[in-house]
Amino acid sequence: MNRYTKVIGLRGHYFLKEFDKSKKNKLQIRKVADFTVKKFFLEGKCEVLVYFEETEKEVLVTPDSSPELIKQYLGEDFL
Questions:
Q1: Mean of the pLDDT values across residues 12-32?
Q2: How many helices (H) and strands (E) does the chain have?
Q3: What distance in Å separates the CA atoms of residue 73 and residue 17, rounded to the nearest whole number?
Q4: Cα–chain center distance at 13
Q5: Model pTM greater than 0.85?
Q6: Nearest-CA neighbor of 50 among 73, 23, 72, 69?
């Protein structure tokens, strides 16, 4: 299952995905569009780790999470 990270800061939010480059033994991080995460989340193929920059709090949201939790951290579009 793919894992995306939603970073919430003072200036808004954005989604990240970590890619493992096995040849170079590096972990590469890239920004991902909201609709890409929404597509895979609704198909049940990914989970989202919500990270708050100010408090360093982390919340893991999966497609099996309660609808209230999904609505609170990801929005109504992800239901």
A1: 90
A2: 2, 5
A3: 17
A4: 10
A5: yes
A6: 73
Q: Which residues touch 57 (CB under 8 Å, ≥6 apart)?
A: 51
Amino acid at the residue 14: Y
Which phi and psi angles does 19 have, rounded to 5°? -115, 130
Domain that holds residue 63: 2-78
Distance CA 17, CA 32 (A): 7
pLDDT number for residue 24: 78
Number of domains in the chain: 1
For the chain, how far is it from start to end, CA to CA, in angstroms?
18
Task: Choose among 20, 1, 12, 2: nearest CA to 52.
Answer: 12
